[in-house]
Amino acid sequence: MTPLEDLLIRRIRATGPITLADYMAECLLHPKHGYYSTRDPFGAGGDFITAPEISQMFGELLGLSIAQTWLDQGSPARFTLAELGPGRGTLMADVLRATKGVPGFHAAVNVVLIEASETLRGVQAKTLAAYAPTWMDSAADLPDQPLFLLANEFFDALPIDQFQRGPDGWRQRMVGLTDGTLSLGLADPMPCPDPRFTSDAIGTVVELCPSAAPIAAHLAGLIRQHGGVAIIIDYGGWRSKGDTLQALRNHAPENPFANPGMADLTAHVDFEALAVAAGFDICSPLTDQGAFLTRLGIHPRAARLATRLSGQALENHLTATRRLTHAAEMGTLFKVMAICPAQCPPPPGFA
Ligand code: SAH
After folding, report:
1. In three state form, how does the secondary structure of 139-188 look?
2. Cβ(47)–Cβ(263) under 8 Å?
3. How far is the CA of 28 from the centre of ligand 1 (A)?
4. What are the distances in angstroms from CA 126 to CA 88, 112, 122, 130?
5. Would the CB of 153 count as within 6 Å of ligand 1?
6. Ligand 1 close to Cβ of residue 152 (< 6 A)
7. Tens of pLDDT along 69-83?
8. Mutate to test the pocket of ligand 1, among 128, 154, 160, 234 (most ligand atoms within 8 A of CB)
9. What pLDDT does residue 47 have?
10. Distance CA 262, CA 250 (A)
11. How far is CA 94 from the centre of its chain?
12. Ligand 1: which atom is nearest the Cα of residue 90?
């Protein structure tokens, strides 16, 4: 039994079943036993690998898209360059390296990292020491100035709730105990005013992410008022369907209730919910990651890098390029959406 499992079982015994969002928040961010609080989970030796860890090209191309948007908006003299959930800081480091040659960009930038994990803040401090970043707990703390923001695989880590259609209406899925171990059960039927609760098919599951919409709305508010752009990249779709909760440990899926605090828990991102919260007028069309990176020029960039490589390094580089863009890999599973003022040119990479 993991230490967190013990705590959760005792809590549920004392005060009853908890929501899935509550369970997920404890598993990921419990200050002592949470998955992100206790480790650096990225890379071959970790549990999963993200796009910036796959290839430097990912961050370089995003950096150029952000810098072009900054130029298109009149090169604001002071702006926030922020990242939600920066992991190891690799994406931000690649963005900053790629934008070094953009006149005035670095002189105007305040680098802000929104990160919940003290362990990962430590890793980011090392990676980004040269850029004197500031850490914040929440998007709500972002300063009142133009905002250029990236979020890669951040929203998929936000806690979700699940609701299930039964013969007598919708019931929330709750984490309780069966024979002393953690298991999913159902709460009493409840009224469900959300437009997603339309299905009459028994067993249909709908997911809601309570913390995503307020964040999207807040980013959109800052961007409307001060200018900028937020580029959100994640796995999911326009409307995520069914039960998408997934646990990953050592690059393999496992039961999300088997090892609380030891596995990464994620769910598909529902981009429609983000666009509704931000306002449709300020959101780009939802775009496949493969198409987005292709429009930003990943293939010529990859070919140029390839001329300097040989042997295993060349193999790895070709595999990485394919992984980021191919439809059978991350190319269509991962989506990109920008929050950008309607009156400004859309960031490069969007049709
Ligand atoms: N963007 C990085 C890491 C993705 S993993 C990459 O692409 O490699 C998710 C990141 O979000 C981790 O850094 C995790 O600690 C952070 N995180 C998760 N939930 C968070 C929350 N509620 N607030 C702030 N950071 C959070």
Report:
1. HHHCCCCCEEEEEECCHHHCCCEEEEEECCEEEEEEEEEECCEEEEEEEE
2. yes
3. 10
4. 9, 15, 7, 9
5. yes
6. yes
7. 999 999 999 999 999
8. 154
9. 83
10. 10
11. 17
12. 8
C-beta of 36 in contact with ligand 1 (< 6 A): yes
Q: What distance lies between CA 96 and its chain's CA centroid? A: 20
- Find out whether the beta carbon of 50 lies less than 6 Å from any atom of ligand 1: yes
What is the C-alpha to C-alpha distance for residues 221 and 73, in angstroms, rounded to an integer? 17
Residue-wise pLDDT tens digits, 87-113? 999 999 999 999 999 999 999 999 999
pLDDT at 131: 96
Instruction: Give the predicted TM-score (pTM) of the model.
Output: 0.96
Q: Residue 336 in contact with residue 292, Cβ under 8 Å?
A: yes
Inter-CA distances, 86 with 13, 128, 261, Å? 36, 11, 20
Binding site membership of 87 for ligand 1 (Cβ less than 6 Å): yes
- Residue whose Cα lies nearest atom 11 of ligand 1: it is 85
CA–centroid distance, residue 85 to ligand 1 (Å)? 3
pLDDT in tens, 242-291: 999 999 998 899 999 999 999 999 999 999 999 999 999 999 999 999 99
